[in-house]
C-alpha cells in the first residue's frame, strides 16, 4: 500500500470513527467501537472500498496510533466530536505536558486557556517533539508547556489514551507557558 493511499484511508477512518459515523451508516457503541466487517461494508457502500488488509496496514503503521483494534472491532483512540466514553481511568500526569499550536491563536489561548473546541478534551503531548509535529499541521508551530503537575494538584483530571495522548477538560491560562 503506497503512502498516499495510507494517508487517504487514515483520514477517511478518522472522519467517520471520530466525527461522522452516521454519514456512512455505522453506529459506534458507547465506547466508540464498531465491528470491522460493519465498517468495511459501510465504506464500500459509500464509494470507499477498503480491504481488511488495508485497514490492518493503516492501524499498524500509523505513527500516531490513531486507532485500536480488539475482538474484531475498531475505534479511534481519541479526538471524537461525537459522544463516546473511552473508559479511560484518571491518571496522574507527568510534571509537564505540551501543546502544539500556531501563533495566530496565542492571544485567545492567553485569555481563555486551552479549550476542547469541537472535541471532548484538550489533547496534550508527552514531549516537546510531538507537540511540534502537532502544531506544524496548521503552520509554523508554537509549543506551550502545561504545568500538568500543578493542575493535577489543583484537582484537574487527566486521562491518557492508548496511544499516549494526554486528555483533560481544559487548561486554564495560569498553567500555560510559551516555549521558544
TrEMBL record:
Gene3D superfamilies: 3.20.170.30, RNA 2'-phosphotransferase, Tpt1/KptA family, N-terminal domain (1.10.10.970)
Keywords recorded for this protein, A-Z: NAD, Transferase
Family annotation (InterPro entries): Ptrans_KptA/Tpt1, RNA_2'-PTrans_C, RNA_2'-PTrans_KptA, RNA_2'-PTrans_N
Annotated GO MF terms: transferase activity
Top-level taxon in the UniProt lineage: Bacteria
Documented EC number(s): 2.7.1.-
Xref: HAMAP family: KptA (MF_00299)
Record function comment: Removes the 2'-phosphate from RNA via an intermediate in which the phosphate is ADP-ribosylated by NAD followed by a presumed transesterification to release the RNA and generate ADP-ribose 1''-2''-cyclic phosphate (APPR>P). May function as an ADP-ribosylase.
PANTHER family to which the protein is assigned, alphabetical: PUTATIVE PHOSPHOTRANSFERASE (PTHR12684), TRNA 2'-PHOSPHOTRANSFERASE 1 (PTHR12684:SF2)
Recorded family membership: Belongs to the KptA/TPT1 family.
Name of protein: Probable RNA 2'-phosphotransferase
Amino acid at each position: 500500500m503506497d503512502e498516499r493511499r495510507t494517508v487517504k484511508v487514515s483520514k477517511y477512518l478518522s472522519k467517520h470513527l471520530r466525527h461522522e459515523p452516521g454519514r456512512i451508516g455505522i453506529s459506534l457503541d458507547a465506547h466508540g467501537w464498531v465491528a470491522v466487517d460493519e465498517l468495511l461494508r459501510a465504506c464500500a457502500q459509500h464509494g470507499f472500498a477498503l480491504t481488511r488488509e488495508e485497514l490492518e496496514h493503516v492501524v499498524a503503521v500509523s505513527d500516531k496510533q490513531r486507532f485500536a483494534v480488539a475482538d474484531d472491532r475498531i475505534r479511534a483512540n481519541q479526538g471524537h466530536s461525537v459522544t463516546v466514553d473511552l473508559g479511560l481511568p484518571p491518571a496522574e500526569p507527568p510534571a509537564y505536558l505540551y501543546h502544539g499550536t500556531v501563533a495566530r491563536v496565542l492571544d485567545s489561548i492567553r485569555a481563555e486557556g486551552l479549550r476542547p473546541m469541537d472535541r471532548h478534551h484538550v489533547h496534550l503531548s508527552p514531549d516537546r517533539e510531538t507537540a511540534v509535529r502537532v502544531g506544524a499541521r496548521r503552520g509554523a508551530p508554537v509549543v506551550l508547556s502545561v504545568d500538568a503537575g500543578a493542575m493535577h494538584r489543583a484537582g484537574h483530571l487527566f486521562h491518557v489514551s492508548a496511544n499516549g495522548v494526554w486528555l483533560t477538560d481544559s487548561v486554564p491560562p495560569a498553567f500555560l507557558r510559551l516555549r521558544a
